[in-house]
Each structure stands twice: as C-alpha cells, then as structure tokens.
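Progress narrative, Year 2. Work on Carboxynorspermidine/carboxyspermidine decarboxylase from Thermospira aquatica advanced from sequence curation to structure prediction during this period.
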Amino acid sequence: MARDHVLKVSDLNIDIQRLRTPVFLVDEARLRANVAILKEVIDRTGCRIILALKAFSTYATFHVLRDVLHGTCASSVDEARLGREYFGKEVHVYGAAYSDEDFRELLKYANHIDFNSFTLWEHFRSVALQAKRKKGIHFGIRINPEHSEAPVALYDPAAPLSRLGVVRGEFRSDLLDGISYLHFHTLCQQNADALVRTLYAVEEKFGEFIPQMAYINFGGGHHITREDYDRDLLCQTIIDFKKKYGVEVYLEPGEAVALNAGYLVATVLDVIHNGMDIAVLDTSAATHMPDVLEMPYRPYILESGLPGEKSYTYRLGGVSCLAGDVIGDYSFDKPLQRGDKLVFTDMAIYSMVKTNTFNGIRLPDIAIMDSEKGWVKIHKRFGYGDFKRRL
Ligand SMILES: Cc1ncc(COP(=O)(O)O)c(C=O)c1O
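Result:
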C-alpha cells in the first residue's frame, strides 16, 4: 500500500532487533487511525459498521475498536462465540449452511442470523421464529445480485454457478414473513464506484422487497480506509439509499478495519545461489501468509525495492519443503546475511486467521504494539503443543 512504501523500520518506534521471530505485530496506532475514518462514515451517514472476524480476530486489540464499531460478523459458531465473548455488542452470522447443532449453538451467541437459501430458512423457521419472539434475534436472507466486481474468480461470490446467496429466480417472496433484512456481499478490496454499480443490480432485481426490510447489509470488501477510497461517494450512496427505502444500512468490512495495521517480522536464515541469490527466511508463505500464494500477491517489505531497483536482488523463499513456497523477488540497499530482519507490511488481515502448521513449522508469535506510544508486548507464543493438538 502506498502509505507503507514511504515508511521506514524506525517509524515502527520499537526495537525490532530484540524480537523473537517470526512474529506478527499488530499496531494499535494504525487501528485507531482506521477506526477514526470508519467513525467519520458512521457519523456522516448513520450507518452501522461491524467487523468481519474472518479477516481479523486478534481479540487483544478489540478494546480499540469496540467503542466505535457496532459489533462483529461471524462465519461460524466459533467466530460468533469469540465475537460474543471478546467484542460484545451485536453479533451477526452468515454461513453458507448450518447443521442443526450449529444452529442451536448460534442462537446462544448471535443476534442477527442470515440464511443462504429459502430451503434453509424453511428448515429452521419454526425454531428461528421462537428465538425471534423470546430473544429478539433477527433473521435475514443473503441475496446474490449476479453482478461481478471482484477482480479474481476465487473471490467472486457473484460468479456464475456461485453457491453464495439467493439469485432472483430462486427468491421466495411468499416466505418473507419473519425475515427482517437482506444481505449481499460481492466486493473485494474495492472502491465506492463498485458499490454504486452493485447497488444498481441489487435494486433492479430485489428493489421491490427492500422497503419491507428493517435494514440492508452491504457486506464487506469496501476498502474504506485506503488512501484513494472515495468516502464522499460512499457516504452519499448510503444517505440516498436510506432515504429512498426508509431502511438502515450495515457495512461489514474486515480488511478496512485492520488495513496496514500489522507487520510480520522475519529473519534471514541462509543465502544460497541457484541462478540468482536466494534468501531462506524463518517464515513461510505456505504457513504464515497463505494469501501470498492464494490471491496471489507480493507483500511489501519495508525499505525494499522491486527486483533490480536497489543494488542487491534476492528471491525470498519460505522455510517449508513446498517448492512453490516463494514470497517474491525483492531488492535491498545492502547484501542480505543470516540474522537480518525483514518487515512485511499489511499483515494484520487474513494472516493470523489463516496460518497453519504444515511441516510442523511453528506459528509466529503475536505481539501488540503502538507505533505512536513506542511499546510492544507479546500476546501469544506457540509451540509443539499447538502443532500436536490439531493432529
Ligand atoms: C459475507 C462476507 N462479509 C464480509 C467479508 C469481509 O470482506 P473484506 O475483508 O474484504 O472487507 C467477507 C469476506 O469474504 C464476506 O464473505
């Protein structure tokens, strides 16, 4: 991200040489800055914003978010429980399907539950209506506007044959009794223009049902805290929508909440040569930053350049046995040597929630820091027990 390209390691305001690596650092100062932007959107529009736990669940930092955000959204029973226990406020849940056991448990933690189909709604309806009466739980339907904006097929819930959300042809207007909201999620790291185009499709297909809802959830994927994000357009769009239909609006971003708010610090373990210089690190794309291979993308490293841009170019490889465990090619002002520390940026989102212990590689420590106040403290350390417990 542009902001990080001008950052220096010294701007972190902590001594990274003293850290045991690999370690994720979550910067409360950056979280505060993101939340201030989200607060501005809430204040201008009266919308409600909840944190998508799938992107960022580092609960030791929830105290920074809790006063502004209205709650969390979960994809499973365990996320819902984490949201209830560590965030509080509202807990929304959307899963592609629920087992009977899941649903019973969800009723303990959630106050808003979405169904991915009318068959599921019919299956759970009598239990749900009872929970609505007794506990005030709200139920909704996820719709699929069949309008694609996501740049990558893997992240496009509106792609042909998608299982995510009810398409207009399958929508059951006769089963809306007890349904208080509609939910769509089609965006991925996008600006407000993509939301505007999506809303055209939503209104065209489902507009007739909107006035009878209490609210519409516009999903996640809004990169609201990115420098070039058009917040005026977002705010005007929400204000106009609320006025037109007389409904409340929810947003459930994950990335935007913790964008650029985390780092992964790794150490060079070896430098070898095979056609080019290759540095092997004590981290791994496969286990510690799987989105680098899945998206795929090239994370930025503080004070690095593109290959050839600075004097010394290296391919950075992970410590796992996977041949494709390659983070990318980078250049540096000085030659790399064993013991050098590298700081990967934007590592708070879809990182700690996705790590794994393939090869028995240890999970990185998790530390919380504050780049304004200059402190860092270890939140979690992992070891053999974490590896063994999963097997
Ligand atoms: C239903 C739903 N809501 C919210 C999100 C959060 O999206 P993001 O982290 O891109 O803002 C996702 C991401 O996949 C999602 O599937």
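The mean pLDDT is 97. The pocket of pyridoxal-5'-phosphate is lined by residues 52, 54-55, 94, 185, 188, 219-221, 252-256 (CB under 6 Å).
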